[in-house]
Amino acid sequence: MTELAIHDTHAGCAPCALEDYGGCEAAARTRLTVRRGAVLFRQNDPFRAFMAVRRGSFKSVAVAPDGREQVLAFVMAGDVLGLDGFGHSRYASSAIALEDSEVLVLDYGTAGSAGGPALHHAMARILSRELLRDYKLKVLLASMNAEQKLASFLLNMSRRLQDRGGCPGDLSLRMTRTDIASYLGLSLETVCRTLTSLHRRRVLQVDGRHLRLLDRRALLRQFGRDE
Amino acid sequence: MTELAIHDTHAGCAPCALEDYGGCEAAARTRLTVRRGAVLFRQNDPFRAFMAVRRGSFKSVAVAPDGREQVLAFVMAGDVLGLDGFGHSRYASSAIALEDSEVLVLDYGTAGSAGGPALHHAMARILSRELLRDYKLKVLLASMNAEQKLASFLLNMSRRLQDRGGCPGDLSLRMTRTDIASYLGLSLETVCRTLTSLHRRRVLQVDGRHLRLLDRRALLRQFGRDE
DNA sequence: CGTCTCCTTGAGGTTGGTCAAACCAGGTGG
DNA sequence: CCACCTGGTTTGACCAACCTCAAGGAGACG
Question: Domains in chain B, start-ordered, CATH in brackets?
Answer without folding.
Answer: 6-137 (2.60.120.10), 144-221 (1.10.10.10)
